[in-house]
Amino acid sequence: MNPPPPPIDAAGAVALPAPQLSELRRIRSRGRLRGVIALLGPAFVAAVAYIDPGNFATNIQGGAKYGFMLVWVIVAANLMAMLVQYLSAKVGVATGRNLPELCRESLPRPASWALWAQAEVVAIATDLAEFVGAAVALNLLFGVPGFQAGLMTAAIAFAILALQSRGYRRFELAVAALLGLVFLGFAYDLLHVGVDAAGLGHGFIPQLDGSQSVLLAVGIIGATVMPHVVYLHSALTQDRVHPTDDSERRELMRFQRADVIIAMTLAGLINLTMLVIAAGLFHTHGHTGVESIEGAHAGLNSMIGGGAALAFAVALLASGLSSSSVGTFAGQVVMQGFINRRIPLFVRRALTMTPALIVLAIGTDPTTTLVISQVVLSFGIPFALVPLIMLTRRRDLMGVLVNSSLTTRVAGGVAALIIGLNVFLLYETFLG
User: Fold this and answer.
1) Contact at 8 Å (CB) between 237 and 89?
2) What is the pLDDT of residues 90-117, one digit of tens each?
3) Cα dihedral value 378, 152, 188, 297, nearest 10
4) Which among 10, 63, 120, 288 counts the fewest CB atoms within 10 Å?
5) CA–CA distances in Å: residue 169 to residues 31, 180, 353
6) Cα separation of 84 and 113, whole Å?
């Protein structure tokens, strides 16, 4: 059978097929606003981890005990988070692989397995913060006992995570909506507390006061620069949009940079608002002993009213549920990337949430547990940061998106600062 003749246009010439638009061009063709919004999202998923219940514990304790003294720590930690998440997003766009996968391919097998082992410890500490925080919120709102609240948290987290099987966009929108709920809750409380502008301004001056303030500072950094989302962000960008050439990679990274700046700024404002509320409400009125989430809730209720307490509890619940879903997703990325293994999501969730459920069952103080979990997370940061810096400075991997020498130096300084803080904390705690 002879092939059909080629199509002829109105002028009698052979009509050539229209050029196919790349995936990025198809998205951009939706219009200026819709095209931009469609390219945003991964950083908002990562940002949820930066306002998990561990942040509530460290920020409330820091604000109540030290007033505005640790404001500079939150600002510095947020700037670190912007840089770290930008580098992680760049890994996915430049290589089409995530950070754990690159570590497995680039490092000796024992090193890759060791990184996986410590990442699992970090995952357990992450689940500890998220489950305890959500359980406390359910108890404050509905009087649900801790262990049962933990099981409810797991079920809801699975439901949110299941949205990803129906497309990444639904999962991103659900998580972003919960992030917005946290923001609105604290915005409501801040309007009723007010801001001491002079005190807030003084808090931008770097200062510490003894080992307890160092512990809280390290906890704030651990709660802000989260190791598991350093791994996760690269996975969120690796297959989301497929650039066809270096020009599209550069263009896509411009949108990822904007995504990181917007999302991390929002997370930073929420963290700052937590501390400002605790400083303005508790420290200013001499209630420096408020060290628990339950105490903060009770203080808001007695000093401002039930509406403020309700907004706080709803924000805490939204934080715990969203960050728990993101944490489960990150755990799958870590295991599959580092050791090329994948287990059913339910089994993975059961393993990492067991310690959290044990803590809830035996009645350990929730806020103390949250602060300790954030310190554990802080010690896990270098194990994510150092490989990230080493890999993003390699032109053979990153191509045109390789780090500049300045970016590498700044990122190295961030890693050195965090390691130094951890060493100082150990010295102050055990030898000071």
Assistant:
1) yes
2) 999 999 999 999 999 998 999 999 999 9
3) -80
4) 10
5) 18, 16, 26
6) 23
